[in-house]
């Protein structure tokens, strides 16, 4: 029935005045009128009418075939590889979607609609952009000639109601004991870094830890594209980077936002993700009295995360490696490492304390480690076991908290 949808859609467009503002209700009325006329000429079932009404409306006013995917709360990832190939991740399983865009031109229209909502620019001269949708979903777009398939869109969706620690315990992502331990460390203002691979749940876990922050503190969040869902802090300031214009001017980077956040009287600074030379500014912020700060980064293990931070710092500053390591050891108290196992479950794999610099190396003190015990019906059986004790307890003592 795609030919019928295309024909009806054109009739709707011919019937409305595109030069004036038309409301959603007026557009739906026009679609209904044309559907009534068309159903007299050719029999259209009630279900088909409803589908055509929705599809035509989404194509004209919304994001076309992507709209119903974005409205489906069970879908966590949407991957568009050109106009004809759409894949979705639902309940941890990736599958091909049975609909596609009618043309590359229509997909390009949807791309421009997406980026315009977030005041971003993407075109042939600037073909890569990170953006977000109005519901907070994260969007990455790559256009030709970089993308050979045609326009490529990757949408990471987040639940309307952020996941809680109780849900993570229920999903066996973390134990009750480890969750209680992290709660005390967040309240006591330990600087915590969350590491893990793509799709391991770093942003979700950062949101969960933020729920432990006392309500009377002032929090500044800094992100590439706004996706954190912190709802329990009244005194919250959210900041997002600004890409440069077509000439590359007027860019506001994470480094700029971290520097200005220090003048905004924060109790804590939360950096959504550290992925470039802004690492040096983040470490300096943590070393200048802003305890209790949180951030995330991509890495395969806690030790790899520290090595990656070293590399990122050296990208932005020509300083001796030992000085960099000393800054990292002084700034970070804890690394929480997440992973996605082969059964697609997301787990806390390791909680590690960052100790002092000794003999030129940063020493780590593993506190909890995930121990795999076997596999049953395709599900990995294991638990997050305590393997060590926290050595630096000064912040706990100052906060009047005991483990």
SSE class: alpha/beta
Cα end-to-end separation: 64 Å
What's the SSE pattern? HHHHEEEHEEEHHEHEEHEHEHHEEEEH
Rg from Cα: 25 Å
| Strand segment tally | 15
Helix content percent band: 25-40%
Instruction: Return the average pLDDT rounded to an integer.
Output: 86
CATH arch. level architecture of the largest domain: 3-Layer(aba) Sandwich
Low-confidence runs (pLDDT<50, min 5 residues)? none
Total separate domains: 3
- Strand-residue fraction? 15-25%
Major beta sheet summary: 9 strands, mixed
Q: Multimeric state of these chains?
A: single chain
How would you summarize what this structure contains?
About 35% of the residues are buried. This protein has helices spanning about 1-15, 25-40, 45-60, 65-70, 105-115, 165-170, 175-185, 200-210, 255-260, 280-285, 300-315, 320-330, 395-400; strands at about 75-80, 85-90, 95, 130, 140, 150-155, 190-195, 220-225, 235-240, 270, 295-300, 335-340, 345-360, 360-375, 380-385. The strands form 2 sheets. It has a 9-stranded mixed sheet with strand order 9-8-10-11-7-12-13-14-15, with helices on both faces.
